[in-house]
Amino acid sequence: MQAILSVTIPFFALVLCGYLAARTRFLPESSIPGLNGFVLFFALPCLLYRFGASLPVRQLLDPVVIIVYLATALLMVFGTIALTRSARVQIKDAAFGALTAAFPNTGFMGVPLLAALLGPRAAGPVLTTVLVDLLLTSSLCISLAHAQERAGASLAADILRALQGALRNPLPWSIAAGMAASLTGFVLPGPLDTVVKMLADAATPVALFTIGTVLWRAGQHVHGRTPAALYLPLALIKLLLHPLLVLGIGSAAIWFGAPLPQFTLWVLVLAAALPSASSVSLLAERYGADNGRVTRAIVASTVLAFASFTLIAWVAMAALG
């Protein structure tokens, strides 16, 4: 447990530092978009490129990993909508609540955290989950959110439009570029490789710090009170049900003979045990959903994840010996 805490405490402490820096106005609110832009468009793409370039493509596009994680995501999305939809929570809010429950913060937090916890080989499965969530899970939830507004348009057309929006995100392209480099054996020229390495080294601390600032900023733009009964279940579904579903579906796949190593399965479980992605609050705001509910669920999952993720990581390390 001490070895796990030596990794998780600094990671969550950096998130707290970002939150406190923004809350105390030591970091001006006007600087947060620039900080987020640096991570999203410069530092994190370089980190993901380097991971992608250092791994065999087979590890990044493992069909078993994709099927197991995607099956879990579909169950999470439709199950969460069924459990949470009510007279007060209409389909749009239910869909973004489902995205909050199904989309872990693998980009900003998961890749560096799991690589630090389990070693560089954990990066392959985590990058696969990033691609699934950015391209498929988010596109599905955005499309479902428009179900009531759809006038003759098909769900497939909505998903295609949402997928086109997801492709504007630089993260899947940086992973794809890394895979291309791995496949072709391409190596960046010396000075350019140094620049990419320097930006990649900045990604982890700045990304974690940025999570805290973004969560604070999102909370400032939420108006009105949201009962805990509306957002706390989303956080608990994210932190407890999501990893349990991955473990159950992955274990069933192994039982039926799928070539899924125990190490890879536990990497997927830990990825699912991460708190909700902070970017979901931005999407909810953009599409006119109940951003207060989504933001409070993300904050609750981030706070509670320190205990729940640490415990699940301890179980994973014990299972892996």
How is this structure best summarized?
The chain has 321 residues and is mainly α. The protein has helices at residues 2-23, 32-54, 57-60, 63-84, 91-102, 106-118, 123-145, 155-166, 170-184, 190-220, 228-255, 262-272, 279-286, 291-320. It has one domain (2-320): Na+/H+ antiporter like fold (Up-down Bundle), CATH 1.20.1530.20.
Any overview of this molecule?
The protein has about 325 residues and is mainly α. It has a single domain (about 1-320), classed as Up-down Bundle (Na+/H+ antiporter like fold), CATH 1.20.1530. Helices cover about 80% and strands about 0% of the residues. It has 14 helices and no strands. The longest helix has about 30 residues, at about 190-220. The protein is globular and about 55 Å long. The model has no long low-confidence stretch (mean pLDDT about 90).
